[in-house]
Amino acid sequence: MRVQTKLLLGLIMIIVSGFEISAQPKCSSGLFLHIDKAVYLPNERIWFTAYLLNLKISDSTKHLNTLYVTLCNGKTKKPILSERFAINHGISKGALFLPDSLLAGEYSLLAYTDEYVANKAEKEYQQWINIGSVKKAESIIKQISLENEGHVPPSQKIKISLQPDSAIYHRRSRSSWKVKLTDDYGNPLRGIFSVACVYSRRLPPGRLNDIRHFYYVDQYKNGSKPVLDTSMDIIRPLQGYVLFNEKRPKHSVKMLLMKDKNMNIINTDEKGGFGIDHYMLVTGNNTLMLSILGNLQSLYTIQLVENADSINLQLGQYNYTIDRLPPVVESDVFTAEELGRRVKTLKGVTVNAREDNEPLDLAQTVKMKSCNAYVCQLQHWMCDGAPPAVPPKIGEKYYDRRSGRYILYMGECATDRQSGEFIKSIKPTHEEEMFPQIDYTKIQELTQEVNSTLYWNYQLVTDENGEATFSFFTNDLKGVFTCIIQGVSTKDIISAKNYFEVVE
């Protein structure tokens, strides 16, 4: 399947790069992010697939290996979160976790590739999102006209059918969908696309964040890129230097990079400087370890330098003219069920809001002797029916739905133990994270599940008949939902949506 997908991506990149859409040369990679929605709550994830829409085959072997994603506070313009994700054959897949410490408000989601500095024509991608935000009528955010500004007519090159097996579903029932792509003569088309099925209130209005509009209009009208104050000629995922007795060494130093079950030897230069290649940092785990090898380890110090930090700071200060979201009124976006499950932070302890005054039992502690513990969405401890989300953190408390108690994680993994400055924990370049799904035919979940993103799939591929299928379960959230597909085909950009309703 991976080989077929790689070949199809190559074919699509060749044909898409030949589209006659504008007189302007396509020197940028055409970075676009399809995210699952536009309005979030803390402890949710921003699920995304990034497409390099202008990428050619010859480009895939250059510096387009890493995607940098940053979330900046809309008021302070300071970066809040920043992660790296692997790019494979023009597509990057990932999720950005929103901690409960984030304040409600407007945020700028920024993304760029590792060719952002080296290629003057390469542009960043930016869009606005809201996190648990309440906006009054006198909000400074402008209401935008979606009718006449840069309208892109429906594609005449492809026909897209996105159909569910029903328009109405009950709670916790299966919803099955079929996608069919054909050209204007009815011939099947091959295509690759991502899928988001979400509560309709959480989506932006009109054409905002639409991949076809971005491809034909937005990428050319967004103006020049910000001028960065940097001496870098290329963005390196990670570099740094080593000190011996607080001074630069006069010889090469050996270090060990521990990733999963693999270990790589890294040699510094004669002054202790080093850089780590992008492929060494790619992993599905959340932590990599870098350590000094040899004797006198305690006398060494590893200093890490993230090239992207200075870029994130400067991009956060830039005044983007891209359309912002219209005012968001909390009661119009979030249901009573969602607000009832809103996560609160009390003295650094993550707890769920409760209607009663029953005291929380925080006495139970867990000391793991392996690294197999995990935390699911909404900070739930090792919940059944969902794949691992993130590993637990030492000193954090998590709710165990099976026992109804809170668990304090003490940590016994090797990567959890405190160490000296000769060993460092470093951020990885993430691979795709599995979207958690619950099969209600196999698991009778007693707690109420009201996640507004019912289904996310980074990448689906149509077969030789131009068809693809997917299915998922509804949860306890009632109302109107929207399924959106966005991607590329051998004829044109893919963009379609359809609706369904969940009732009692």
Could you list some keywords that capture this structure?
504 residues; mainly beta; 5-stranded mixed β-sheet; 5 helices; 9% helix; 37% strand
Structure report:
There is one protein chain. With 504 residues, this protein is mainly beta. Helix content is 9%, strand content 37%. The protein contains five helices and 30 strands. Strands 1, 2, 3, 4, 5, 6, 7, 8, 17 and 26 form a ten-stranded mixed beta sheet that branches.
In helices, the fraction of residues equals: under 10%
How far apart are the termini? 39 Å
State mean pLDDT (0 to 100 scale): 78
Task: Kindly estimate the percentage of residues that lie in beta strands according to DSSP.
Answer: 35-45%
What is the SS-derived class?
Answer: mainly beta
**Radius of gyration over C-alpha positions, nearest whole angstrom:** 24 Å
Low-confidence stretches are 14-25, 133-149, 343-370, 414-419
How would you characterize the largest beta sheet? 10 strands, mixed
Q: Quick one: overall form?
A: globular
Strand segment count: 30
How would you summarize this macromolecular structure in one to three sentences?
With 504 residues, the protein is mostly beta strands.
Outline the fold blueprint.
Layout: H1 2-16, E1 31-35, E2 39-40, E3 45-52, E4 66-73, E5 79-88, E6 91-97, E7 105-113, E8 125-131, E9 158-164, E10 168-170, E11 174-183, E12 191-199, H2 211-221, E13 238-244, E14 254-259, E15 262-267, E16 273-276, E17 282-283, E18 288-292, E19 300-305, H3 307-317, H4 330-333, H5 336-340, E20 343-346, E21 349-352, E22 365-366, E23 397-400, E24 405-409, E25 423-426, E26 429-430, E27 453-461, E28 467-473, E29 479-489, E30 493-503
Parallel strand pairs: 2-8, 5-26, 10-30, 17-26, 22-24
Antiparallel strand pairs: 1-3, 3-6, 4-5, 4-7, 5-6, 7-8, 9-11, 11-28, 12-27, 12-29, 13-16, 13-19, 14-15, 14-18, 18-25, 20-21, 23-24, 29-30
